[in-house]
Amino acid sequence: QVQFVESGGGLVQPGGSLRVSCAASASTLDNFAIAWIRQAPGKGREGVSCISASDGSTYYANSVKGRFTISRDNAKNTVYLQMNNLRPQDTAVYYCATDQSPTCGNEYVPLKQQFLTDGYWGQGTQVTVSS
Q1: Residue 57 carries which DSSP code?
Q2: DSSP tally for the chain: helices H, then strands E
Q3: Most C-beta atoms within 10 A of its C-beta, which of 8, 76, 92, 100?
């Protein structure tokens, strides 16, 4: 059974940094791509980033490209999302998710819709960017 535990959220000022973590079992991280999904109040879900299990390739939404970095520490069974230069519009609950496949997507669909609709999700961690 896939289970995630997210942590590391909090309140940060605009321009600041935060790192959120997603702990899972070794078998989950070894076999499945892991995505970070966020949802702000009154808005739809957004796929922020993803790291594949097959080759470690990564995906970033245009809204976070150049500011966020996803990484995986197999020794700690954890996936991280380092968020720099945070903006108020980054405020959301951040979830890690998987659709139980080894890849995030392909050249035409870099992040599969299944991550947002049918995947396994954690309980989320709140990130608030405000002065």
Answers
A1: -
A2: 2, 11
A3: 92
